[in-house]
């Protein structure tokens, strides 16, 4: 059974950094495409970034390009989302998820974490 557990959310001032972690258990995360998604209040879940560790490839939503970085640590079986220069519009519940293919559509992701709240104050 694959399980994903996120951590690292919190309250941060605009312009500040935050790093989210997603610990994967049950299978090596490198066997999946690992994605980060977010759901702002009252809005639909949206794609943020994904990584295909086995291919060494990453992909980002335009809204976070240049500010966020996704990475992974094989030894810890953990995926990270480093978020810099945070903006109030980044406020959302952030989820990590695992998919078998290279997708940005959340409906294609099989496994999900419980989410972690990120709040950016202005």
Summary of the model, kept short:
With 122 residues, the protein is mostly beta strands. The chain is built from no helices and eleven strands.
Tell me about this structure.
A hairpin with a 4-residue loop joins strand 5 and strand 6 (57-60). Helices cover 0% and strands 52% of the residues. 32% of the residues are buried. With 122 residues, it is mainly β. It is built from no helices and 11 strands. Strands 2, 4, 5, 6, 9, 10 and 11 form a 7-stranded mixed β-sheet that branches. Strands 1-3-8-7 form a 4-stranded antiparallel β-sheet, with no helix packed on it.
Give the CA-based shape.
Answer: globular
Beta-strand level of the residues, as a percent range? over 45%
Sequence stretches where pLDDT stays below 50 over 5 or more residues: none
Provide mean pLDDT, rounded: 96
Question: What is the strand and helix layout of this fold?
Answer:
Blueprint lengths: L2 E5 L2 E4 L4 E8 L7 E7 L6 E7 L4 E4 L7 E6 L4 E6 L8 E8 L11 E2 L3 E6 L1
Parallel strand pairs: 2-11
Antiparallel strand pairs: 1-3, 3-8, 4-5, 4-9, 5-6, 7-8, 9-10, 9-11
Labels describing this entry:
globular; mainly beta; 0% helix; 122 residues; single chain; four-stranded antiparallel beta sheet; seven-stranded mixed beta sheet; 11 strands
């Amino acid at each position: 059974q694959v399980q994903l557990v996120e951590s690292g959310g919190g309250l941060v001032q605009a312009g500040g950094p935050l790093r989210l972690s997603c610990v994967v258990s049950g299978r090596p995360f490198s066997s999946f495409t690992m994605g980060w998604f977010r759901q702002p209040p009252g809005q639909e879940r949206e794609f943020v970034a994904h990584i295909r560790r086995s291919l060494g490839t990453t992909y980002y939503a335009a809204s976070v390009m240049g500010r966020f970085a996704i990475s992974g640590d094989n030894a810890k079986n953990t995926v990270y989302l480093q978020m810099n220069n945070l903006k109030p519009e980044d406020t959302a519940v952030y989820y990590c998820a695992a998919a078998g293919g290279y997708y940005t559509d959340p409906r294609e992701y099989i496994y999900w974490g419980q989410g972690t709240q990120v709040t950016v104050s202005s």
